[in-house]
Amino acid sequence: MCGIAGIVDFNHNRNSIDTVKSMLQSISYRGPDECGIYHSQFSTMGNVRLSIIDLINGQQPLSDLSGRYWIVFNGEIFNYRELRAELEKDGRKLRTQSDTEVLVQLYSRYGKGCLGKLNGQFAFAIWDNLDEECFIARDRVGIRPLFYNISGGVFSFASEIKSLFQQRSINRELHAESLAQIYTFWTALTPNTAFKDIYELPPGHCLVFNRDGLKIERYWELVFDNRHANLSFDDALEGFDELLGSAVRLRLRADVEVAAYLSGGLDSTATVRYIKDIEPGILNTFSIGFEDKVFDESSYQTEAVKYLNTNHKSINCSSQDIARTFPGVVWHSETPLTRTAPAPMMILSKLVRDNNIKVVITGEGSDEMLAGYDIFREARIRRFWASQPGSSIRPLLLKKLYPDIPHLRNAPTNMLKMFFGYKLDDVGNPFYSHLLRWNNSNHIKKHFSPDLRESLRDYAPQDLLSAQLPGGFDNWDALARSQWLETTIFMSGYLLSSQGDRMAMANSVEGRYPFLDYRLIEFCAGLPADYKLKGLNEKFLLKKLMENRIPESIIKRPKQPYRAPVSSVFMAAGAPQYVNEMISATYTKKAGIFNMETLMPLYNRMEKTGTASEMDNMVLAAVISTHLLHHQFIENNHDEFHTPELKNLKLVEDF
């Protein structure tokens, strides 16, 4: 794992070394072990390295043997040993044991065709000295980030947006249409970001920048089809078991210790079971608990640790801890947030790093691939209810989905109808499963300032999403459409960013995700729907697979979405001073994004009652995070957070 940054300028590349140094300095926590910069007539690019494979010889930038191609690389190619053997059989000689050299040699051999051979999580850039062009690619589902900007003919790229902003010529401005997207989908739709003129390379895409300009191309697409429609359930179990075992085995490859998160849920417990089967012995595991018992899963964590016999460490998270951490969360996320859930993940990654561990295996991806989220079951119940919309019995099924939300658990039927009945009959809508969530998020936009609301009056974020749907989407079954939306929008844009890469790399920790092995993704995408969601029994295939392999109580436990408190974090007595500043009338007017006249009654109600609805919590998190983002990146126009000094700088000048 690393951070990368670079500039391609066909006119005036003379001063780019100092600029790229600043770009790398701003993200040096992503790679605190060493640093390298490649500089040529038209291209300067660099890397800060977190050493995990080939600790001695894997320093970047690195070239192929001819010196034509130079690479900076963020991520891991897990099948690099097999690919290395393929290159050597082809007569290629390699100087290091690193996956970075395997990658640049593959590109020199196959060009962009190498992407189909990679099993990994990556964002990398390769400069071609002969053709004078930059090639950049990002992994299939967007585990590793990559942002870019083109200003005055100068192309620049980086692992994080703050790195791009080291170029003072790039304006810092929040993008109104992106805010409308974020407060609908919880994330901007790629290639958009929260900032104007800052773009994200979409997952599964590559780009080329040369004198002719920028060209972006898709090399992989998530497609749900019927390729395994006739596969028996037992054969599906066997195939899934083989693929998951292989995915875990590949992700244990490292020249440093690999640990694991163990949340007490099905997914992390399953991955730890596989790790223990593959490499018996001591395994360090980590988890986080909450002082607020509504969010705490410690009892299940304890049971999993005892059953699997791991060396476990846990940290307890209070509302004060979340409040203290939240500004750093926004700084690393680089986007407005609707929840505080990333904060405990950042606290957890610090615990990992404090124990001198750089790599953790986690369970992300299982809920998307195997229909584990409540939104999939909610959509199924709403469709069932929609066939008899007047029923007073069918809406009661929704109570079973959210036992952790008291006002829904105890709600009468008329309240359930009011809350869950939004566009109930619109079952033909391709976005049916997500309409309710998006409508709830849209409440945030009711608090936009009059000027912002006017500028967005005719803007409909769903129209942009409609244009991005894959061919054949309308012919997929209802669950497949739901899974595509959740995987493509929420998982990539929110989960793997705000709760994955950014919160781990803030503390120089690499997360690895076996359930996001592309082979496993494609396998699950071809399975019959009821192998994944059997009635209302989510992740049915994985539950069956883990019988007698993990505690039965964890298999049968009610689904508990990972959440963290919001109103008790920000509205409690003794909250940090920044909270009062960010929700003040003064800052609200200064930022010009929200309307204090509509927000004040909400703040007063929270303070008076000490409670808040889910939508109120989303509004509160949105206002504070958006104002923090404005304060950190726009108002101050400089870095607020300390970053480590660059270490072991290697400069390669190539003319």
Task: Report what the structure shows.
By secondary structure, the protein is of the alpha/beta class. It folds into 3 domains: 2-220, Glutamine Phosphoribosylpyrophosphate, subunit 1, domain 1 (4-Layer Sandwich); 233-318 and 345-370 and 485-556, HUPs (Rossmann fold, 3-Layer(aba) Sandwich); 567-635, no CATH class. It is built from 27 helices and 18 strands. The strands form 3 sheets. The protein has a 7-stranded mixed β-sheet. Strands 4-5-6-7-11-12 form a 6-stranded antiparallel β-sheet, covered by helices on one side. A 5-stranded parallel β-sheet has the order 15-14-13-16-17, sandwiched between helices. Strand 6 and strand 7 (133-138) form a beta hairpin. Helix 2 (80-89) crosses helix 3, helix 5 packs across helix 15 and helix 9 packs across helix 10 (342-354). The two termini are 29 Å apart. The mean pLDDT is 94.
